[in-house]
Design brief:
Chain lengths: 662, 292
């Protein structure tokens, strides 16, 4: 081994990171200071340590100067710890004799004053040098990867990822978990997709069916993730199936039960139609639902609510599939990786009260407009007003809740394009005059600008300006009885009042309401807007800070269908790569016992979440089972006599590092 | 008896006298006490706040400091301008330490401590919250059946501080109209501008705004407009003839205070409600007819 007992010969390499660090930190000063520290043989500065020449520089020094310890002061270890461990390893140095010091995210990016930043960088380098001197060589461990993959969310992202994985025939089985009774996600609600105006169902339903029948996919619909344990390659997940009160294996989707329900007319809001259409207590969410199985909404069903009903549904069912006694059911699965594709929710338009949503009649959201335009929707594809008339003039208001510091500052990216699509469809179905009120028309994408051009030539009107309000307060006889859109037309330089019959609010996309719970369960992070955070915005867009968990689609940020599908494919290939590798390296940070100090109190045994500590009856001490230990450190913290320590995080290392900082 | 501290402001002692009369009469009828803040001064509204904002805040704060002497009693400010000025002063002092320092210094020299604990309320909200709809309805002896009322809130009690009703879709005044047996008409203009000071400053703009409100009330076939603010009442009432001459439209409609409306429904004397000081009064069904 690269002698852990020899006197330390430490090399310190301080990275400029272009101007990222150099701009705020006096790097030559830090280098000069590092050279004075005990055990430091060589200290150097370089423009980009992570570049090939930078790496070569370090490798050469390790060999020629016989360095036995390495410190690189650069960016966060999540980015390049792996890189420099490899550099050490290739130069014949045990990779665990390297220490990463973060002077970019931890110093230069968050400190304005150059003097302060330089002082802080020096302190961190001093801490890193003291720590590395005490580090010991460790051997990485590896464990086999479970080839199965869990996909969370059965919208277009989840379905595409699941099918990509399943079609690879790699031996990987896919578990697709969808919390709604049917897969399909929001895309199933749309009639047409931009910019090609191809029918959403026509491209979506074949995929839905394929998911259902694919031998490599197990579909868990109407189920939610409730627990996750383990780590990359070896996750233990628990999902809970919500009761449908219908035996999914027996139901053939004939709908005779729905016909027979004691409620003769549908009277409960159907969530799939955003409450715009009604359903019975026993129902199928929409005609193309997959699985094509009915379910009973417990709060609406007379039997389940009051225990009193003629149970005509059960009588009508020839398969005896109705099961009022169903309870939530938990299922445990073992998977090696997880793809999160939980999608988005739309902005609540009530948060912009000046647009009158929920107060004024005939003010609807874009998602509701999608349902009105869908042939399976509440008005069979022809958007009508509340009283059944066809609208003559329609206003579509862009950026509702988006690009607005009072609500969401970010651009939701898809709204300009879907608003144009809605304008086209509304004109096509109703012959109405359609106005789009926009701040900026954002149509980057293949065929997108051309679509905008096409719409303009069709005669859709566009007015540039953020709408001030939608009101019924008429000023003239002509305005009376209409919704008046008040807006500053910033191209014409005037205030306009546009009377319309129907207002469509182009609401932005937001993270799902329970993203934070999911984030905690999966140990992920979220960005400022609350969307799930990728490992690197450019270079690792579907990976996360937790190995083996990937993200795809709008749960990561607003995106349209083509981008979502591309990302889903990318996440699937990341998961497949892991399956193909077959094993994962596990950090060797296991716990160790100093038998001299161990009193045999066994506090640690009870604390260990992995059952990795055993008690030796003969020696009256505990010992750690390396294979089971995950290196969480709980036992080391709990041990009253200081006998338990964790490799790479031994008390003396941590204390030396702390002493270096202060 | 619940007692409130009454801050009349200049309007209620002047052109808004019918408001004061009806307010006092209705509070008395409901067994609610109103004690005028002794030695109150200008609320600081409009002119002061526009010319010297800090001085305006100090003026308003003096009234609040006086109110603090009567600990635990809420301030009732019936004029929307006063309500806004007092609320704004309180909020500004709380938000800006430098303003607070000026205020405490100025008032301190007069021996008046200011802590900011006085609560400023509008009588519409006091009646609807503290007395409550049941008690308000229970006192009605002469339901205003057949009276079609345009409920007009104006701006200052809704924006920007609010505290009385929903800012964008106010409904409390409408609820009160229903409560006394009258019929609220559909009046989407209820939170639009009455013209404010523009009726004297920039008349072409101010009177156009008045015209819009009267026009909409007439179009909705209202017999009366109900207001919560002396300036709204003044603007909507006094320019009717002039607008008729200018536009050729019949824009004549009684404009009454919500407290007058309540008083009428409580069967209080017209003179006690200041009805005789209005230019137009609503025609009500005879009490006998109502009972029949």
């Amino acid at each position: 081994m690269n002698g852990t007992r020899e006197a330390p010969r430490i090399g310190v390499y301080v990275c400029d990171c272009g101007f990222n660090i150099l701009g705020t930190v006096d790097v030559p000063g830090v280098v000069r200071y590092a050279a004075t520290l005990e055990g430091v043989i060589v200290a150097k500065e370089y423009k980009y340590m992570c570049s090939d020449p930078g790496q070569a520089l370090i490798g050469k020094d390790i060999r020629e100067q016989r360095l036995n310890r390495l410190v690189v002061a650069s960016c966060t270890p999540t980015l390049h710890e792996r890189t420099f461990r490899r550099v050490a390893s290739e130069a014949g140095l045990n990779p665990f004799l390297f220490n990463a010091v973060n002077i970019r995210e931890g110093v230069s990016w968050v400190t304005d004053d150059k003097g302060e930043a330089t002082g802080k960088a020096k302190a961190l380098v001093r801490a890193g040098v003291r720590r590395v001197a005490l580090q010991e060589a460790l051997e990485p461990r590896s464990e086999p990867v479970n080839p199965n993959v869990l996909v969370l969310g059965g919208g277009i992202a989840g379905m595409h990822a699941a099918l990509s994985l399943a079609n690879a025939n790699s031996g990987a089985k896919v578990h697709l978990v969808e919390r709604e009774p049917s897969i399909g996600g929001n895309m199933a609600r749309f009639d047409k997709t931009f910019p090609t105006l191809d029918c959403a169902s026509c491209i979506l339903t074949p995929k839905m069916t394929e998911v259902k029948i694919h031998p490599n996919i197990t579909l868990h619909s109407y189920a939610e993730l409730v627990g996750v344990e383990g780590y990359v390659g070896n996750f233990d997940v628990t999902i809970e199936h919500k009761p449908r009160y219908v035996n999914e294996d027996l139901c053939i989707g004939c709908l005779k039960c729905v016909e027979a329900c004691v409620y003769k007319d549908p009277r409960f809001p159907n969530a799939f139609d955003l409450g715009l259409a009604k359903r019975k207590p026993i129902y199928i969410p929409f005609p193309q639902a997959v699985p094509t199985k009915v379910l009973i909404h417990a709060e609406d069903c007379l039997h389940l609510k009051f225990g009193k009903c003629k149970d005509t549904c059960a009588e009508a069912c020839e398969k005896d599939a109705i099961d009022f006694g169903q309870k939530p059911e938990r299922v445990s699965l073992k998977v090696g990786s997880i793809i999160v594709s939980t999608g988005y929710k739309t902005f609540d338009a009530r948060r912009k009260p000046q647009y009158g949503y929920g107060v004024l009649p005939n003010v609807i959201t874009a998602l509701e407009a999608e349902r009105f335009l869908a042939p399976t929707g509440p008005t069979n594809g022809i958007p009508t007003l509340g009283d059944g008339r066809l609208p003559k003039k329609v206003g579509i208001i862009h950026c509702v809740g988006s690009r607005d510091r009072n609500t969401n500052a970010y651009c939701s990216k898809v709204c300009c394009m879907y608003s144009l699509k809605l304008a086209h469809l509304i004109r096509e179905r109703t012959g109405a005059e359609v106005y789009n009120f926009y701040i900026d028309m954002r149509t980057p994408g293949k065929g997108y600008e051309e679509f905008y051009d096409q719409l303009l030539s069709e005669g859709v009107k566009v007015i540039r300006g953020r709408v001030a309000e939608v009101t019924r307060a008429a000023l003239t006889e002509a305005e009376r009885g209409h919704l008046i859109i008040r807006v500053e037309d910033t191209l014409a330089g005037m205030v306009r009042r546009v009377p319309v019959d129907l207002v469509v609010l182009s609401v932005g996309l937001e993270p799902q309401a329970d993203t934070q719970e999911l984030r905690r369960m999966l140990n992920l992070s979220c960005g400022r807007e609350g969307f799930l955070q990728e490992l690197h915005p450019k270079l690792a867009p579907v990976s996360t800070a937790t190995d083996g968990i990937y993200i795809a689609g709008a749960c990561q940020g607003p995106k349209d269908i083509p981008e979502t599908v591309a990302q889903a494919g990318s996440a699937a290939s990341e998961a497949l790569a892991l399956v193909h590798r077959g094993k994962v390296e596990i950090q060797p940070y296991t716990a160790v016992v100093d038998e001299e100090l161990c009193s045999g109190c066994r506090v640690c045994v009870g604390m260990c979440p992995y059952d990795a500590i055993a008690y030796d009856e003969e020696k009256k001490v505990v010992h750690v089972l390396d294979v089971k230990c995950k290196g969480c450190g709980v036992c080391a913290a709990a041990c009253p006599s200081g006998a338990m320590d964790q490799k790479h995080f031994r008390s003396e290392l941590v204390l030396a590092e702390m002493a270096g900082v202060i | 008896m619940t007692e409130y501290l009454y801050f009349p402001g200049c309007s209620l002692k002047g052109a808004g006298a019918p408001y004061e009369k009806s307010l006092l009469a209705v509070f008395r009828a409901l067994g609610l006490g109103l004690k005028e803040i002794p030695d109150w001064n200008c609320c600081g509204a409009t002119a002061y706040l526009s010319v010297d904002a800090e001085m305006g805040v100090v003026l308003a704060a003096r009234n609040l400091a006086l109110a603090e002497r009567e600990d635990g009693k809420d301030v009732v400010a019936p004029c929307s301008g006063c309500y806004l000025a007092l609320t704004k002063a309180k909020s500004t002092i709380a938000e800006y330490p430098d303003v607070r320092a000026k205020v405490t210094d100025a008032l301190g020299r007069a021996g008046l401590p200011y802590t900011g604990r006085a609560v400023v309320r509008h009588p519409l909200e006091v009646l609807m919250t503290d007395a409550g709809p049941e008690r308000l309805r229970g006192r009605v002896t002469r339901p205003l059946k057949g009276l079609r009322v345009a409920p007009y809130n104006g701006c200052a009690i809704l924006r920007p501080y609010g505290g009385v009703d929903d800012t964008h879709t106010p409904h409390v005044l409408e609820d009160l109209v229903r409560l006394v047996g009258a019929t609220p008409v559909d009046y989407p203009h209820k939170a639009r501008c009455c013209g404010g000071m523009l009726t004297s400053g920039v008349q072409t703009v101010g009177l156009r705004l008045v015209e819009i409100l009267l026009d909409a009330a007439k179009a909705a076939a209202a017999n009366a407009i109900v207001t919560t603010c002396p300036l709204c009442q003044y603007n909507l009432e006094v320019y009717q003839n002039r607008l008729r001459k200018a536009t050729g439209k019949d824009l004549g409609i009684p404009v009454i205070y919500f407290t007058q409306m309540l008083g009428l429904a409580y069967g209080l004397d017209d003179r006690a409600l200041g009805m005789d000081q209005l230019l137009r009064v609503p025609v009500l069904a005879a009490p006998a007819e109502v009972r029949a």
